[in-house]
Specification:
The longest helix is centred in the middle third of the chain and has 17 residues, at about 110-125. Helix 1 links the parallel strand 3 and strand 4 (about 75-80). The protein has about 270 residues and is of the alpha/beta class. The chain is globular. The protein has seven helices and eight strands, in the order E-E-E-H-E-H-E-H-E-H-H-E-H-E-H.
Length: about 270
């Protein structure tokens, strides 16, 4: 999925069809799809997956990644969430406004909608620790959520994160001057919300060495901020890889390590 703004306001239905039927948490709801065969009462790790900004096509790759994660992490349930205002390739849609995908949709209301969905999922799996996995813009939302809803998640896996919002938008403005990256936004900057993340949260930050959309420096700066807060942080740069690495073996391994490190609930 290349990051291009030529079709900025047009979604092309070209991603593969999701592989599972949807589930609906308590209202207000975002569209979700669930993966894994573990009985509900036996689930010990709830993994929630957020897709990226997907400026050119309806996002569905998160479903394939979620299925992979479910197979990789024992005693897990994995739920892929369709972010507010987005439609997927099968035509499912979440309520809300999508935005222009210029860093304008990491706002408090969208973060609240994701948080409400996660809260409902936590009630569904009361014996599970919760790990929030975000890719690209979904990683920014995940980081913001952890920083503004302390205790809602136990772990973070951030992949290709534009986690220093001002720096990311400035870089994208140079890269794509035809897109309105210079316009003011009300999005939350993950770097400025890091102080609200509880110190017992665990994090994994993974970025491709050749990521031109969210360069490694943005992940490194955020990882350093987490470490300064005393948060256990696994930061890795994947050699030779670019931006589309949500299902990369390094991400899967980091997720497995993080899940295994979390203390179990009764």
């Amino acid at each position: 999925m290349r990051y291009s703004f030529l079709p900025l306001l047009l979604l092309a239905a070209c991603a593969p069809k999701p592989m599972s039927s949807g589930t609906a948490p308590a209202q207000p709801t975002l569209y979700t799809e669930s993966f894994g065969n573990t009985p509900r009462d036996a689930v010990r790790t709830l993994i929630v997956v957020l897709h990226g900004d997907a400026p050119t096509a309806p996002p569905s790759y998160q479903y394939a990644a979620a299925r992979t994660f479910a197979a990789a992490v024992p005693e897990s349930a994995v739920v892929a969430v369709l972010r507010p205002g987005y439609s997927d390739a099968a035509g499912h849609r979440s309520v809300g406004e999508r935005g222009l995908t210029t860093g304008d949709n990491y706002t408090a209301d969208r973060i609240a909608a994701v948080a409400q969905t996660i809260g409902a999922l936590r009630q569904r799996y009361p014996h599970a620790r919760t790990i929030l996995v975000g890719h690209s813009g979904g990683a920014a939302i995940a980081a913001d959520l952890a920083g503004t809803r302390g205790g809602l998640v136990d772990g973070l896996v951030l992949v290709g994160c534009p986690c220093m919002l001002d720096e990311w938008r400035a870089g994208m403005e140079k890269r794509m001057p035809e897109a309105p990256f210079e316009a003011p936004v009300t999005s939350l900057d993950p770097l400025k919300t890091v102080g609200g993340i509880p110190s017992d949260t665990r994090a994994a930050i993974i970025v491709g060495a050749k990521d031109e959309i969210a360069p490694p420096a943005l992940s490194r700066g955020y990882a350093e901020a987490l470490a300064l807060r005393g948060i256990a942080t696994d930061f890795r740069i994947v050699p030779g890889k670019g931006h589309e690495i949500l299902d990369d073996p390094e991400v899967i391994t980091a997720l497995q390590r993080l899940a295994a490190s979390l203390p179990r609930l009764p």
